[in-house]
Every structure is written in structure tokens, then in C-alpha cells.
Amino acid sequence: MRLSAMEGQEQVIRSLQRGLIHERVGHAYLFSGTPGVGKKTIARAFAQSILCLQPQAGDACDVCPSCRQYLSDNHPDMTWLQPDGATLKIDQIRGLRQRIRYRPYESPSQVVIMEQADTMQPPAANALLKILEEPPGPVVFILISDRGQALLETIRSRCLPVAFGPVPDEAIAAFLQGQGVAETQVTLLTLLAEGRWDRAARLAKEGPPPIREKAIALLKELPQAGEVTIFRWAEEWDKNKEGIAELLDTMALLMRDQLLINQQVPESLIVNGDCAGLLVHWPPAALLDGVEKVLAARNWLTSNVSGKLLVEDLLMTLREHVRRR
């Protein structure tokens, strides 16, 4: 895919295209940012544009001999390094040095993409640093990292930083709609995607996480639940703080939605559009108190507190608030 056709990282793409158009491509780049926001995809498109023999306004042409080789994953001037196991190893860097010591075969420059560059141990990182300091020929390095600050400062200083932020909600929502997601779930799944293409793709395929259905059932049954039922629910979350965090986040959103529905706000502001009316019988004061209690419990999760007791106390409190009001 061409650079100009990509969405979600427009500022990054404009910057890269300016360098291509004005023939000011850097010698090394560090693509860093949250996982799943398009770093690898854009690196691939940028590499093709660098290698293209007939670039057009910062885009690869897709038809020249170089592009055809690239699109068939058979370009002699392209090297893609991935961790061997958990790390990028020094033998891989030594092999890279041997490969790039020759002049390019097809394109004006060679391109090296290094995935998870932050996984290099010191020997590998120092070997790469020597290559960056004294490149053997025309070569462009694109280092990709979810944790750019974990790289050696001396490596970072020799790379042009390219920061990738979260994908805008508008782009995620448009993607979900294009995947056929029901309009009543687009807002929720956009929120759950947290600006990441990979999560959006998974949510489009699988739908909301199963924990959402548990939260819905729990809130629906809570006003009539007895102590034994609440104890059983709490037992399920013992030693599962990550699951509790997801449960509490979902509960807070469901309560928040009901408060907004009570105020007759536009539907576009409702996250759980398919659950309208779930908590219609909860008094507004109970909903407000409920959101406050749930968020407070969420904060307690970071401390050394029993997950079981936390859930148990929260549910007991919420039930009493609903019954009292």
C-alpha cells in the first residue's frame, strides 16, 4: 500500500513524504510508539518508496522493476531483521554488516528494517552503533520499537525520531464500520481499541470482550442478589486483578451511559448503545454513587488488596445504594 493511501498517522506520513519529495531522506530513522498503531506497515511502505525507481510525489509507483521485486518480497536491496527468539542477536548484526557492504543492486540505496530494535542486548547494540557511525554504503535504516527509550542513547542520537501516536477515533470508527460492525457497537469498540489497529481488527472479528456480558448480567441481577450470590460472584474474581480492572471499567461505562440516557443526550455519546435501558430502574443518585464507588475500587487495585474482598465489598455497597434509593 502506498504511503498516501494510509490512514491514522497523517502527520508521520506527511513528514516522510516531504523527505522523499525533496530528496532529503535520512540515513537512519527510529519509529517508536504504542504497539499496533501502524509502525511496521508504514515502514514497509516507506521502504518501497525509497527503493522505487520512479517515485511519484513521495509514493512508490508499484510498476517499476524495483517495486515489482519489492511487492513479491524478493528485493535484493531490502533487508528485514526480526528478533531471533526473544532478542536481536549480535550474529544477526554481523550478518547484516556483511550483507550491506556491497553497493545496491537495483535501487539507489539499500534499506534495512529492524523490528523490535529495543530487544538488542549490549553487544548487538554496540555492533549496530558502529554500522550507523560508519555505514559501508548508501543504506537507510528504519528501527521499529514499542519502547524507543530502551535503545542506547548513542543509537537514538543517530536516528531521526518518528513518533507514532494513537490512531484517531475517527479512523478506528471508520474501519469498524467498513468491517460491518453494527452502529450500536461502533462507539464501544472504538473506545476498547484504544487507538490501535490490531485491537480494532480483533474486536471487529470477535466483538466486545466476554467480560462485558458478565458485567451486564451482574448489574442486571445485583438489586435482587442475596449475600450468597454476591460471595459466589466475588469468588470468581479472586487473584484476577487484571480481569477485575476490565470488569470495573465496563461497569463504570454502563452506569455512565445510563446517566447520559436519563439526560436525553445524543445517541452518539452513548458508548454501549445496544444496552440502552439496562439500568433504567436504578435511581440517578445510585448511578452517580455507583460510578464513584467503582472508580474508587479501580484505584484500590494498584495496592496490595484482595481482589475477592474488593469485589465483594463493592457489590454489597452498590446493592445497598440501589435498594436504599
**Span of the ends, CA to CA:** 57 Å
The helix-strand sequence is HEHHEHEHEHEHHHHHHHH
**Beta-strand content bin:** 5-15%
Q: How would a textbook summarize the main sheet?
A: 5 strands, parallel
Helix and strand content put the structural class at alpha/beta
Shape: elongated
Secondary structure tally: strands: 5
Domain AAA+ ATPase: 25-166
InterPro entries: AAA+_ATPase, DNA_pol_HolB, DNA_pol_III_delta_C, DNA_Rep/Repair_Clamp_Loader, P-loop_NTPase
Catalytic activity: DNA(n) + a 2'-deoxyribonucleoside 5'-triphosphate = DNA(n+1) + diphosphate
Keywords: DNA replication, DNA-directed DNA polymerase, Nucleotidyltransferase, Transferase
Characterization of this structure:
Residues 25-166 form the AAA+ ATPase domain. InterPro entries: AAA+_ATPase, DNA_pol_HolB, DNA_pol_III_delta_C, DNA_Rep/Repair_Clamp_Loader, P-loop_NTPase. With 325 residues, the chain is an alpha/beta fold. The chain is built from 14 helices and 5 strands. The chain has 3 domains: 3-164, P-loop containing nucleotide triphosphate hydrolases (Rossmann fold, 3-Layer(aba) Sandwich), CATH 3.40.50.300; 169-206; 210-324, Zinc Finger, Delta Prime, domain 3 (Up-down Bundle), CATH 1.20.272. The protein has helices spanning 10-21, 39-51, 65-71, 90-100, 122-133, 153-156, 169-178, 183-193, 197-206, 210-221, 227-236, 241-262, 284-300, 307-324, and strands at residues 28-33, 78-81, 110-114, 139-145, 160-164. Strands 2-3-4-1-5 form a 5-stranded parallel beta sheet, sandwiched between helices. It starts with 9 loop residues before the first helix and ends with a helix.
